[in-house]
């Protein structure tokens, strides 16, 4: 598996991604492309238009041409890789596909996007059926929309656009969740993710189940588990929310939060870290909120849980460094 697949899916419905145009979706709706759920398939399940597929499927072409779908990224950003997933499409997948990107302010309609300056991200490339077709992308430009073109027709289950979130600072409030993936925060390290990836903690909204969070294996030693979050921007943290929703018999007993500014300190130097939240007891299946006293600016926050267990969400509300946010945005536009 390519390393870029560990990055957030910028196109996911989870972040608000959506299909704004397709020229054909006769057999199955293009909206399936941005569904965050893993594709499923029930053989011999037929509707009025044939076998039901969990994906986008166009009719068989009887004339030259191609089919396309345009996706608005829920989280605009720099694309590092594309996954054109043809899961369960075997005799009806497209033999080739290409992907382009564009950056557009505001909320363009299909006509405006048709005349946008599209930039090639993945050239016309062969696809395999019933497979994840992974393509690395070498670009440092920020994109808001992606166009998937299939040649000549067929079915694609999911389009995943993995990359770094780069929000427009003009659209952010003065205080926001600087640990949110949709604002550009990401996981920089963790001790264990046996049952669930810590990136889940940074996802928007409430966790839907215990499987929609970070959960570690049971520890059989005297140590504890931890996760390191790179914030969306350097920020002064004012409020922390540690959410153990759905974790009942496996919530951590307690937790701490520490911060560091890596512009002036080193991650491996204990003296450069400062306390955000002392060790506090956690309750199962509970959204805990803790005010944070005035502390220095942090670029990274480390959550330690004792000794192990599961966390549904981590929210860190703070005042970001405005110039740093703008500089990151301008470097990609």
From TrEMBL:
Pathway as given in its UniProt record: Nitrogen metabolism; (S)-allantoin degradation; (S)-ureidoglycolate from allantoate (aminidohydrolase route): step 1/1
Enzyme Commission designation: 3.5.3.4
GO molecular function: allantoicase activity
Domain of life where this protein originates: Bacteria
InterPro entries, alphabetized: Allantoicase (IPR005164), Allantoicase_dom (IPR015908), Galactose-bd-like_sf (IPR008979)
Keywords, ordered alphabetically: Hydrolase, Purine metabolism
Broad class of enzyme this protein falls into: hydrolase
A GO biological process held by the record: purine nucleobase metabolic process
Pfam families assigned to the protein according to its UniProt record, in alphabetical order: Allantoicase
Domain Allantoicase, chain residue ranges per copy: 16-165, 184-320
Catalytic activity: allantoate + H2O = (S)-ureidoglycolate + urea
Family statement drawn from the similarity comment of this UniProt entry: Belongs to the allantoicase family.
Record-given protein name: Probable allantoicase
Origin species: Pseudosporangium ferrugineum
Lineage: Bacteria, Bacillati, Actinomycetota, Actinomycetes, Micromonosporales
Recorded name of the encoding gene: alc
């Amino acid at each position: 598996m390519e390393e870029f697949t560990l990055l957030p899916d910028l196109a996911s419905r989870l972040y608000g991604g959506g299909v704004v145009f397709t020229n054909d979706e006769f057999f199955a709706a293009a909206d399936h492309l941005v569904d965050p759920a893993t594709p499923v398939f029930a053989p011999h399940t037929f509707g009025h238009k044939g076998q039901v597929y969990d994906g986008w499927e166009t009719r068989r072409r009887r004339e030259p041409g191609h089919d396309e779908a345009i996706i608005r990224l829920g989280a605009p950003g720099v694309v590092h890789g594309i996954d054109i997933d043809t899961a369960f499409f075997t005799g009806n997948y497209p033999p080739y596909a290409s992907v382009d990107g564009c950056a557009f302010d505001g909320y363009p309609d299909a006509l405006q996007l048709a005349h946008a300056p599209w930039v090639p991200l993945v050239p016309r490339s062969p696809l395999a059926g019933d497979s994840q077709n992974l393509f690395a992308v070498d670009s440092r430009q920020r994109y808001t929309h992606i166009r998937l073109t299939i040649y000549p027709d067929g079915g694609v289950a999911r389009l995943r656009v993995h990359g770094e979130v780069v929000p427009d600072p003009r659209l952010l409030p003065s205080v926001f969740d600087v640990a949110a993936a949709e604002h550009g925060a990401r996981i920089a390290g963790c001790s264990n993710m046996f049952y669930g990836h810590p990136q889940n903690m940074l996802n928007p909204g409430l966790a839907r189940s215990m499987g929609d969070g970070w959960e570690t294996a049971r520890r059989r030693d005297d140590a504890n588990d931890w996760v390191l979050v790179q914030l969306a921007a350097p920020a002064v943290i004012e409020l922390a929310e540690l959410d153990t929703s759905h974790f009942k018999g496996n919530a951590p007993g307690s937790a701490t939060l520490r911060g560091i500014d890596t512009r002036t300190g080193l991650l491996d130097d204990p003296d450069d870290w400062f306390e955000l939240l002392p060790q506090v007891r956690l309750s199962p299946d509970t959204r805990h909120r803790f005010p944070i006293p005035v502390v220095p600016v942090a670029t990274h926050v480390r959550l330690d849980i004792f000794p192990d267990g599961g966390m549904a969400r981590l929210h860190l509300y703070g005042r970001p460094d405005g110039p740093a946010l703008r500089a990151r945005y301008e470097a990609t536009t």
